[in-house]
Amino acid sequence: MTLEDYIHEHTTVTAFAAMLGKSRAQVHRYMRGENLSKSVIEEICRATGGAVEPKSFFNTTSESAV
Q1: pTM of the prediction?
Q2: What is the rounded CA–CA span in Å between residue 3 and residue 28?
Q3: Percent of the chain with pLDDT over 70
């Protein structure tokens, strides 16, 4: 599950930001994959009870090389 999916299904950006002690703007950046450090990813995973996994922050689709 992505962070965006989690927030959409379980909470609001405002409430999630408050839970992390971050601004709404910062949470929106996280949702876009910006400003993500290992510690932030771990914090998000803990805050969501593991529903959002670290791998969800990385694009795992591969495209064929020509």
Answers
A1: 0.84
A2: 10
A3: 89
